[in-house]
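Q: Give me a protein?
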Amino acid sequence: MIQIDLSGKRALVTGANSGIGESVAETLAEAGADVAVNYVTHPEAAGAVVDRIKARGRNSILVCADVSNADQVAEMFAEIDTHLGGIDILVNNAGIDGQAGRAWELDTGHWSRVIDINLTGAFLVSHEALRRMVAQKSGVIVNMTSVHEMIPWSGYAAYTASKAGLSMMTKTLAQEAAPFGVRVLAVAPGAIKTPINKSVWSDPAGLADLNQKIPMGRMGERAEIAGMVAALASGIASYATGSTVFIDGGMTDFADFSHGG
């Protein structure tokens, strides 16, 4: 039986105080990794994640940093170096949807904030991680994109642009880092049940409409994303780099065409 074994690995998960990031952090710990839990808001929730990881017998630390701030990112990695001794796995999960609105109606500041966190933030954190991973000639980065790296989403131009950009950044970093034994991949979730979208899945009409867009006919669970991230970060995926794995129940498989053209 193949098992995911991350024993002795040191991981950082950004935006790990809730939702998918929380599940990823705890799953990596379950597989044996020590985990740095990054957050910006809700320190009590982040602290609870750390407590649950420690209860599994793993080391875990809280690291507060806005990923779009280069100085804060550098300070975060200094803490990781001190308390974990380095990094082997990075999961760039921190991200926001931003304010909804058509492009010509939005304040451009909202565009900048989404790009700053979702794309520039992932680059800044990867920059610090790669400096360490390339030097040790090992490491894995998993970027959290979205089905919206390829599916347009009216009202969310910044979000879709950031995720498409993150997909291409994944490929480019993978190309650069491969000769040094470092892998870079992306996971693209579809509609996943998290607290942030509860207004959709708790409304029967909204849920029914959403499920029609998914060939498997249901939303995904956070554990289904976290399990894939853990597998990609492990030796099971040792020959995989530079690609995006879609975990979306078939949402990107053009559900509207399932009954003919």
Remarks:
- Helices lie at 19-30, 43-55, 70-84, 108-136, 157-177, 198-201, 204-211, 222-233.
- The chain has a mean pLDDT of 95.
- Residues 108-136 form the longest helix (29 residues).
- The chain has one domain: 10-249.
